């Protein structure tokens, strides 16, 4: 664990929140933009089963971890369970708007089927890489309010809440990986994580692109022009893929750790804004 750099005073806090139970979202709930809406809808479809995979992958290595990491894994699991519940609810809104998400769910099932029978360390490596993706996307969602600007309030709040917790627990899968591979050489550890990240990146972008194209097809939006709009959304404006590229590349640097970039200020920022928004309603 000598390479771990998780802040000693970090607290991982499961926040049991519920969103969007009292109404429905617009079909294009994010700024009346079908492209932006399709991105988050397609991403959300992956979370219920995907986060179950994350939980099982990390839990498989919990036994024998140092006490602090063991507690962090327990908190990570609690956060992910609540995230799963909220994305199930969010996905229900998606289907209520007439979308058929079964093709997207089949793609998730196919991806998870490939993990069955693999060594548990391989699944932990994939989880570590995907957790890096969620963390750098989460950073952008809070640091750049433009991503969720114009969204239906409950939906945008749900994504911000999810983002702050992803930042908070971004080191757990990585620290579990460091512990599980503590007998490996630095070269072996880097080689495996780099290869897995490259494969994971290809699958991540391919899967989200296909999901978006399918949802847009159901909106009657097809053709080369629509595909170009999807690419422009990812790499141009607002350019989520472009803006996380540097943080993605940092994963390959020697000595990388998710907490080399301490962005806890974003957690406090998101939480204070969220609390300011919900307290009057709860009063």
* Total individual domains: 1
Coarse shape? globular
Strand segment tally: 0
Terminal-residue CA separation: 45 Å
By CATH reckoning, the class would read Mainly Alpha
Helix/strand-derived category reads mainly alpha
What is the typical, i.e. mean, pLDDT? Answer: 92
Low-confidence segments, ≥5 residues, pLDDT <50? Answer: 277-283
Radius of gyration: 19 Å
Beta-strand percentage? under 5%
Which fold name is given in CATH as the topology?
Ribonucleotide Reductase, subunit A
| Count of alpha/pi helices | 11
Order of helices and strands: HHHHHHHHHHH
Helix residue percentage: 55-70%
CATH architectural arrangement: Orthogonal Bundle
| Largest sheet descriptor | none
């Amino acid at each position: 664990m000598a390479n771990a750099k998780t802040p000693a005073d970090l607290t991982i806090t499961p926040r049991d929140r519920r969103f969007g139970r009292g109404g429905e979202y617009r079909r294009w709930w994010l700024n009346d933009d079908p492209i932006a809406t399709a991105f988050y809808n397609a991403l959300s479809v992956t979370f219920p089963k995907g986060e179950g995979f994350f939980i099982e992958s990390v839990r498989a290595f919990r036994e024998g971890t140092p006490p602090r990491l063991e507690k962090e894994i327990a908190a990570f699991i609690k956060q992910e369970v609540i995230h799963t519940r909220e994305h199930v609810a969010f996905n229900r809104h998606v289907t209520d708007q007439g979308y058929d998400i079964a093709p997207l769910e089949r793609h998730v099932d196919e991806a998870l089927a490939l993990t069955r029978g693999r060594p548990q360390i391989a699944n932990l490596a994939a989880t570590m890489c995907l957790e890096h993706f969620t963390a750098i996307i989460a950073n952008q969602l809070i640091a750049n309010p433009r991503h969720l600007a114009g969204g239906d309030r409950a939906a945008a709040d749900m994504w911000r809440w999810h983002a702050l917790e992803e930042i908070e627990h971004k080191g757990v899968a990585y620290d579990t990986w460091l512990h599980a591979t503590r007998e490996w050489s630095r070269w072996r550890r880097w080689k495996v994580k780099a290869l897995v990240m490259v494969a994971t990146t290809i699958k991540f972008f391919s899967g989200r692109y296909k999901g978006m194209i399918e949802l847009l097809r159901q909106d009657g939006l097809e053709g080369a022009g629509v595909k170009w709009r999807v690419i422009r959304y990812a790499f141009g404006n607002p350019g989520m893929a472009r803006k996380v590229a540097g943080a993605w590349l940092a994963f390959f640097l020697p000595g990388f750790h998710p907490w080399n970039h301490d962005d806890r200020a974003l957690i406090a920022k998101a939480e204070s804004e969220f609390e300011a928004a919900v307290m009057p309603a709860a009063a």
